[in-house]
Design brief:
CATH topology of the largest domain: 2,3-Dihydroxybiphenyl 1,2-Dioxygenase, domain 1
CATH architecture of the largest domain: Roll
Strand content: 35-45%
CATH class of the largest domain: Alpha Beta
Helix content: 10-25%
Number of strands: 16
Low-confidence stretches: none
Mean pLDDT: 94
Number of helices: 6
Structural class: alpha+beta
Order of helices and strands: EHEEEEHEEEEHEEHHEEHEEE
Distance between the termini: 25 Å
Strand order of the largest sheet: 2-3-4-1-5-8-7-6
Length: 288
C-alpha cells in the first residue's frame, strides 16, 4: 500500500495515546515497534506530544493527557471530516455528546471529541497541515480501528448519521463499517486492490470497509463500549513476548482468528491495543 497523504471524509485517519507519563510510554512503544519519536511541542511547553514515525513518516503519537481529562492511559481514534463543527453538531443531534467542543490545534487542524449514545469516545479531525497517518498496514502502523458495542442497531443509526457509514454483516461474530465509494479511492491509490481482495476470498463489498463493528458479549459485563486500535505486526508471538519484556501485559495471548494471528496487549500504564499478524491460511478459522 503506498504511503498516504490524506483521507476521504468518514475514514479513520489517525491514532494517538494519552499517557500520564508520555516519556515512559515513548520508551515502551519505541522499544516495541521501533518507532522514531520526536516531541513536537514548542520548547517550554507543559505538555508533550511525541510524533511516532516509520521511515520518517508519521504513524501515530503519544501525548500528555488533555487538561480536563482523567489521568488514565487510552488509545484514541480520529475520523477525517470536512468540518469538525458540523460533524459535532450532527453527533449531538443524533443523541451523542460533544465531550470536547471543536477547537484549533495550532496549524495542524481542527478537532472535536464526541461520545456515542453508549459512551464510546471517538475524535473528529478536520485537517489543515497534518493529514493523518502517512503509513498504514505495515509492521508497527495502524491496521484497523473498531467499535465494541452492546447496541449495534443504535450504533448504526448514530455513525450513519455522522459519517454516512453503512455495514457489512459478517454473522454473529460482528461486522464491518463501510463507506460507499471508499473502494474507488483505494483502487485509485493502489490499482488492483479489488482484484487482490477478490483473489483472497474477501466478501463482496469489503473494499468499502473502513472499520470494524464488534458486539460485546454477555460474558464481558465489565467491558465498556469503546473504540479499539489495531496495529499490524510481522509476528504476533514475538510482539507479545517483547511487550512483556518491556513491562506490558497480555490481556489475550497470541491466538488464531479469521485471517490473522492476534494478541491483545495492555501497556505499562494501562492502555490496551490489538496486534494483528496477517495470516491468509487462517481465512476460515472460526467458520467465518
Amino acid at each position: 500500500m503506498p504511503d498516504r497523504d490524506g483521507y476521504p471524509a468518514g475514514v479513520p485517519c489517525w491514532v494517538d495515546t494519552s499517557q500520564p507519563d508520555p516519556d515512559a510510554a515513548a520508551e515502551f512503544y519505541g522499544g516495541l515497534f521501533g518507532w522514531e519519536l520526536e516531541d513536537v511541542m514548542p520548547p517550554g511547553s507543559e505538555v508533550k506530544y511525541f510524533m511516532a514515525r516509520i521511515r520518517g513518516r508519521d504513524v501515530g503519537a503519544i501525548s500528555s493527557p488533555s487538561q480536563d481529562a482523567p489521568p488514565m492511559a487510552t488509545w484514541n481514534t480520529y475520523v477525517w471530516v470536512d468540518s469538525a463543527d458540523e460533524a459535532a453538531a450532527k453527533a449531538r443531534a443524533a443523541g451523542g455528546q460533544v465531550v470536547m467542543q471543536p477547537f484549533d490545534v495550532m496549524d495542524a487542524g481542527r478537532m472535536a471529541v464526541i461520545a456515542d449514545p453508549e459512551g464510546a469516545v471517538i475524535c473528529l479531525w478536520q485537517a489543515k497541515e497534518s493529514k493523518g497517518a502517512q503509513v498504514v498496514n505495515e509492521h508497527g502502523s495502524v491496521n484497523f480501528n473498531g467499535l465494541n458495542t452492546r447496541d449495534a442497531d443504535g450504533a448504526k443509526d448514530f455513525y450513519g448519521a455522522i459519517f454516512g457509514w453503512g455495514t457489512l454483516d459478517l454473522g454473529p461474530g460482528g461486522g464491518m463499517w463501510t463507506l460507499p465509494g471508499y473502494g474507488d479511492h483505494l483502487e485509485e491509490l493502489n490499482p488492483g486492490t479489488r482484484e487482490q481482495m477478490a483473489s483472497m476470498g474477501a466478501p463482496t463489498g469489503f473494499e468499502d470497509v473502513v472499520a470494524a463493528l464488534t458486539p460485546i458479549g454477555d460474558d464481558q459485563p465489565d467491558v465498556p463500549p469503546h473504540w479499539s486500535v489495531t496495529f499490524g505486526v510481522d509476528d504476533a508471538d514475538a510482539i507479545a513476548a517483547r511487550a512483556e519484556e518491556l513491562g506490558g501485559a497480555l490481556v489475550v495471548p497470541p491466538m488464531d482468528a479469521p485471517w490473522v494471528r492476534m494478541t491483545v496487549i495492555r501497556d505499562p500504564q494501562g492502555a490496551t491495543f490489538i496486534a494483528n499478524q496477517f495470516v491468509p491460511e487462517n481465512k476460515d478459522v472460526g467458520g467465518r
